[in-house]
Amino acid sequence: MTETAATNAQDQAKLAVQAAAALTKSDDSEGMSYLESLPRRLVTLYLPLFIILVVLLFPFYWMGLTSIKPDEQLIDMENYNPFWVIHPTLKHITKLLFETEYPRWLWNTMYVAACATTLSIVASVLAAYAIVRLRFKGGDAVGVLIFFAYLVPPSILFIPLASVIQAYGLFDSPLSLILVYPTLLIPFSTWLLMGYFKTIPFELEECALIDGASRWQILVKIVIPLAVPGLISAFIFSFTLCWNEFIYALTFLQSTPNKTVPVAIVNEFVDGDIYKWGSLMAGALVGSLPLVILYAFFVEHYVSAMTGAVKE
Amino acid sequence: MTTMQTSMPAQAVYKDTRSLWEKLRTNRNWLALWFMLPTAAFLILFLAYPLGLGVWMSFTDERIGRTGIFVGLENYEWLWNDSIFWLSVFNTLLYTIIASVIKFAVGLYLALLLNRHMPFKAMIRAIVLVPFIVPTVLSAIAFWWIYDAQFSIISWSLIKLGLIDHNINFLGDPNMARGSVIFANIWRGVPFVAITLLAGLQTVSPSLYEAATLDGATDWQRFRYITYPLLTPIIAVVMTFSVLFTFTDFQLVWALTRGGPVNATHLMATLSYQRGILSGRLGEGAAIATAMIPFLLAAIAISWFGMQRRKWQQGSDND
Hints:
- The structure holds 2 protein chains of 2 kinds.
- Chain A is an all-alpha fold.
- Chain A is built from 16 helices and no strands.
- The longest helix of chain A is centred in the middle third of the chain and has 33 residues, at 102-134.
- By secondary structure, chain B is mostly helical.
- Chain B has 2 domains: 20-57, no CATH class; 74-314, MetI-like (MetI-like fold).
- Chain B is 75% helix and 0% strand.
- The chains are: A mainly alpha, B mainly alpha.
- Chains A and B meet through helix 1, helix 2, helix 5, helix 6 and helix 7 of A and helix 3, helix 5, helix 6, helix 7 and helix 8 of B.
């Protein structure tokens, strides 16, 4: 009995991910598309889709191409076709990895993102569980407040935060970002996890309560294992947000070795050199790849996080 | 009945014997307080307090390295007479309105395309979202190179096609720069709008379309009377987020133009950074940031009341 309830709960918790999976996986229903002729589909579907995809992907092609182009081909557009590369070189990438502090920046970015995300997920799990299941006085109001916190943009907070960070003595330290990023992540993850926790049946918790489990035990042994898909979604999305964050990192970090990839790329590579483009593009490419790879593995979780947070 | 009466006092006695520690550990409200504590700490220390502090700072003449004194509305009076500030307000509104409208139109169109049956559907949908995954600054750097005055690939292609005879100065000419920045923003925002609207489209039952087709509805009628009404709630939410994030955008403009040429692409956020952090006039920067709040509240209010009206029309009081 309990086992079936548990599997039911697991099924329900997975529903959101499956909804996202439906988004990314093809379904078998053809709908009414058989009514259309091929030329008509070509003009109304494939052609516009192709154009949009080309526009969306071209900057990445250009980024990748530039990062492996030898310098003389970069600036000579008469003798070489700029859309292609002859004798590709890894010079820009090796220069980036071995002659600059790029690995250090990459490490900073990853370290800050991982710490901030972990902190936020722990805080969000506790908060979401309290709001959804403890039904305490004023719980709904707290939920709404957290939603409003999601709508407060970093660009109106960075100036006062800079002086707060200065006052706490955290200026130019990665710790400042680790402590500030959760304000961007917690509201979002809390709302996402609230949605997941709502799908876990009450009966499971009631059983455990009768068996003498404390709320903490229920959370750790029942709710969290059932909400794993939701946790992965929240983690992936938060991690991406941290990696992408710019204005706080730009404001709080001063010394070159402490910078994160986005800030370092904008500030450290920009000199008057016309040959800077190769290393700039290599830097942008290497900085994006980890996220794209992560995304490729967790597409469904990512999409469910994105759509879930909007739907709630 | 009698059993209840006898059991009631017994329970009351049991309640009274719980120690304070026991109450703190098991009482619903106390327990919730412990659970909410980490979240509350983060959000109060680094969100609510700075929000208030920002408004306060906008009434002081604080500079980097020196605490400010209260100067009343002086910062705002100064900004009121500052043409660059008004230019940034104009730019921000222009940027937000044009980018949001196009993002909505293209995003909805792309969502409708992706919702149709085709080979490699899963892969295409996954690829569409890539511009949204890649950090904005890094793709902005790619755009910077694409928009380069000398080696722009767009200029090169158009010259080879014989459409123009000299390089386009994408980021050097005020209006071209505005257009270029807006295009980059649209490029990044469309996938988000498209994929979230696609999630909404998936919930529309295909049988509605089949029924409408049998009744002789055209493509446009099916969109106007089935898709659009059912999609309205999610459109409202997605566009609210899109407008808020576009209005407060900083990184794209900072990476591409830093507000130039001649302040033509300065948004309120970038101007606030330049005045507040780079020039060190924290008070003035905070005043510019605070001036964004009314716009944000207006955007939230519009979408909120839009959704309320929708609910009222549909005659339901929840969802």
